[in-house]
Design brief:
The chain contains twelve helices and 18 strands. The protein is an alpha+beta fold. A four-stranded mixed beta sheet has the order 2-3-1-4, covered by helices on one side. The chain has a four-stranded antiparallel beta sheet with strand order 8-7-9-10, covered by helices on one side. A hairpin with a 2-residue loop joins strand 15 and strand 16. Helix 2 crosses helix 8.
Length: 443
């Protein structure tokens, strides 16, 4: 868990620092005075006047650079930036040449876009480098010796364990990793394939199915390779270690029911959360029996290895084609973010899938895997770019909206309106953050 937390902490530190640098760079470019540039907050966020102290600070020119004590986010304090923390007495004064509010609309627009642009460019850059150096990995139907394992969403739609999906509408399936994304992005209406018994099938996909799939996309795989397995490792502090399970064991039965595949083993454990189960285990040529406690989350602490390794196909890219594919993947991710916002407001109970730091920690790898770390950082960078672009006061997108209104109407929105709008926005954002970070109570 500490490794997961450390990876998320490092990822957010990189993204926040570069995001704020985007605002800082444009502000300095347009000769705005920047009073502070802080990683983390030197106050109890969002109360600017409470518990003010820094772990480190150094004044260089007009700017105080520092590290705050409150390990959450960071900020750039630009002179004359009208926000909820601004001294209200400044609203009664004329804008000064070094203040942001005195600058032309197009300059203020670029200052507010700075952080979003940096997050977007960084996400695309990381995707580009990953594709160039590591390629894109996929699993084809030829690698599915035992077909697919389906989650509850796929089962609800009509798919079954052991299925092989051959076509999405008229598109031949070349990568099972792409199946859920293709269903959503291309508005697939029919899934075609072959059942375990060799029978052909067609499953109709309705709008509510796509919405449900999008709602669950971060929580489950939809479909994944089904495989027979043996134990690759056992958590030394788990129930499995106490049950004398060992690397190389093959679990045959759980409470007398056959579990030939890993997904059937996992599903069987979910039926006995918090209880003890009888396991029948093949160890080399001997069959042994043992008792094991199942955790409240339905696991015992074992890590599987497919008995027959599943072949992964790797697509390689030149430097140019990797950039093109990285931009394509990045734009696709942004569109998916937008569609998820729509789902929250249109699908019953979809708001319960809003996630915070707990869910992000769970998505990190339990060992320090740099490829996974940078892939997640790229995803998070683009997600932050999208979220900050939302037209909510206090977020960058809120400022951008008011500036665009000014540019269209040629009439500047008053500083007083901006100030109070940001106070409303602060309440909205805090409420959303609190709800999202209660995700651990909705697991």
């Amino acid at each position: 868990m500490l490794i997961k937390i450390a990876q998320l902490f490092l990822s957010l530190t990189i993204l926040v620092t570069l995001h704020e640098f985007g605002h800082y760079w444009f502000a300095k470019k347009f000769k705005c005075r920047v009073d502070k540039f802080y990683l983390f907050f030197d106050f109890l966020f969002p109360f600017a006047g409470l518990l003010n102290f820094s772990l480190f600070k150094k004044k260089m020119g007009d700017t105080e650079y520092g590290i705050g004590w409150f390990p959450f986010g960071g900020y750039v304090q630009i002179a004359g930036m009208v926000d909820e923390q601004m001294d209200k007495t400044l609203l009664q004064t004329e804008p000064q040449p070094w203040e942001l509010r005195s600058k032309p609309a197009w300059q203020r627009l670029l200052v507010m876009l700075g952080g979003i642009l940096v997050n977007f460019i960084l996400g695309i850059f990381i995707f580009w480098m990953i594709l160039f150096f590591s390629g894109k990995h996929s699993i084809t139907n030829q690698a599915l010796t035992y077909g697919l394992a389906v989650d509850s969403t796929a089962y609800h739609m009509g798919l079954r364990d052991g299925d092989v999906i051959t076509h999405l509408d008229d598109q031949a399936v070349t990568s099972i990793n792409r199946i859920p994304v293709t269903i959503i992005m291309d508005r697939i209406t029919n899934i075609r394939g072959i059942r375990e018994n060799g029978q052909l099938f067609t499953v109709a996909v309705k709008d509510e199915d796509r919405a449900l799939l999008l709602k669950r996309l971060k929580k489950s795989d939809f479909v994944s390779p089904r495989f027979k397995f043996k134990l690759d490792s056992i958590d030394a502090n788990s129930f499995a270690a106490n049950a004398n399970l060992k690397k190389g064991d093959v679990i045959l039965k759980v409470n007398q029911q056959d579990v030939p595949y890993f997904n059937s083993f996992r599903s069987r454990l979910q039926q006995f959360t918090g209880k003890k189960v009888q396991l029948s285990v093949l160890r080399q040529k001997d069959t042994i029996h043992t008792t094991c406690q199942v955790s409240e989350t339905g696991i015992i602490g074992v890590f599987p290895k497919p008995i027959q390794d599943i072949a992964v196909t790797t697509q390689t890219f030149s430097l140019g084609s990797a950039l093109f594919q990285g931009i394509k993947d990045g734009m696709e991710l942004m569109i998916m973010q937008a569609k998820q916002i729509v789902v929250i407001f249109t699908v019953k109970d979809a708001h319960q899938q809003m996630s915070g730091f707990y869910s992000m920690v769970q998505q990190m790898d339990s060992s320090w895997d740099w490829l996974h770390f940078w892939s997640f950082t790229a995803f998070l960078s683009l997600a932050l770019a999208f979220m900050n672009f939302l037209p909510i006061p206090m977020l960058d997108g809120g400022y951008i909206l008011f500036i665009l209104i000014e540019m269209i109407t040629r009439k500047k929105v008053s500083d007083k309106v901006l100030y109070y709008a940001n106070n409303v926005g602060l309440f909205i954002v805090l409420a959303l953050m609190i709800y999202a970070n209660l995700d651990w109570t909705r697991q």
